[in-house]
Amino acid sequence: MNPIPFGVRWGPLRRLRNRLAIWAYECGLFAELDSFAWTQGWQVERGLTRRVYRDRRFDALAECRRCHGVGEAPARSPCAACSGTGRVNVAEQPGSQV
To answer: Where are the domains of the chain?
Structure first.
C-alpha cells in the first residue's frame, strides 16, 4: 500500500500548473500596458499578479542641496539653483537650458 496520499504527491505540480495558468492569463491582461511602457522606455517590474511601471528619468532627480528640497531660499524667494522645485536633474550639464 502506498503511504503517500495521491493528493499530496501531485500537490506541488498542481500548484505549479495553477501558477503558470495565472501567469499566462496576466501576461495577456497586461500586454497592452507592457507594450506602451516598452515604447516609452519605462522599467517594468513583473510580479506574479502585479506590474510596477517606472520611468527611468526619475533616477536623475535629486534633492536640491541649497534649499534642502523645500524650493525656497532663506529670504522666502524661489531657490535659484532648482527654480523653486526642490529638486535638480543630475544628468544635466550645469548652466544648460532644457
So the answer is: 6-54, 57-98
